[in-house]
């Protein structure tokens, strides 16, 4: 079984649990002014996106996609998991939000969505680790954008992703040919359900690898910021949550870059 099939089965089984979890709290979206914590955090850096044609790659159950649409963007969501997209479509329908959702692997995005049709490509937390080739991903991003279009990423920092439970480097910082294979019967939302599909295949990508991939794809880096927080409990037992859903090291949080925001524009 290839990595796509393994990861798709994992996400498909967990999507319904995520849709009913307090972490995603889908009932809050009944308020038309509500935005996901992630998009609310991103909003000052995103700026005005009203009227932009946007695509959210690896959109999962659509909470961030719908939040971006509420900021005025004409949003499309793309994900490999049909079960996740089913939950996303239900949420869009329940909240009367116009979003087009499509099922595809990121590397097939242009085959499904065409080239050059978007002003904004958005990628959120916990997305890039599922991709084996960051340079190939960058080529897809550039192909999706119209000249002058913008990429916006907020992602877990690769330094954070190296750490084991003891806060020591355990996983590779750089992209590797072989995946990181892990087995987990649970899920990050804290649900007590024991799942049957437990395997995942993932990859880490160094910050320079991501930036270099974008530059070689014809993108121009316009902003890069590092943050001491992430919007999930990435290191259980070592992090504390603030009032906005962000988690930091409990002890001396400024010693670790936990996430980063990157923006780049397609030249042309």
Short description:
This protein has helices at about 5-20, 35-45, 65-70, 80-95, 110-115, 135-145, 160, 205-215; strands at about 55, 75-80, 100-105, 120-125, 145-155, 180-185, 200, 220-225, 240, 245-250, 260-265. By secondary structure, it is α/β, with parallel strands linked by helices. The chain has a single domain, classed as Rossmann fold (3-Layer(aba) Sandwich).
Radius of gyration: 17 Å
Low-confidence stretches: none
Order of helices and strands: HHEHEHEHEHEHEEHEEEE
Number of domains: 1
Euclidean distance between termini CA atoms: 41 Å
- Strand order, sheet with most strands: 3-2-1-4-5-11-8
Mean pLDDT equals: 96
Keywords: Methyltransferase, Transferase
Domain Methyltransferase type: 56-151
Organism: Actinophytocola algeriensis
InterPro entries: Methyltransf_12, SAM-dependent_MTases_sf
Description:
- With 268 residues, this protein is of the alpha/beta class.
- The protein has one domain: Vaccinia Virus protein VP39 (Rossmann fold, 3-Layer(aba) Sandwich), CATH 3.40.50.
- 29% of the residues lie in helices and 24% in strands.
- The chain has 8 helices and 11 strands.
- It has helices at 3-19, 37-46, 63-70, 82-94, 109-113, 134-144, 158-162, 207-216; strands at 53-57, 74-79, 100-103, 118-123, 145-156, 180-183, 199-202, 219-227, 239-241, 247-249, 259-266.
- The strands form 3 sheets. The protein has a 7-stranded mixed beta sheet with strand order 3-2-1-4-5-11-8, sandwiched between helices. Strands 6-7 form a two-stranded antiparallel sheet. Strands 9-10 form a two-stranded antiparallel sheet.
- The protein is globular.
- The relative contact order is 0.16.
- The mean pLDDT is 96.
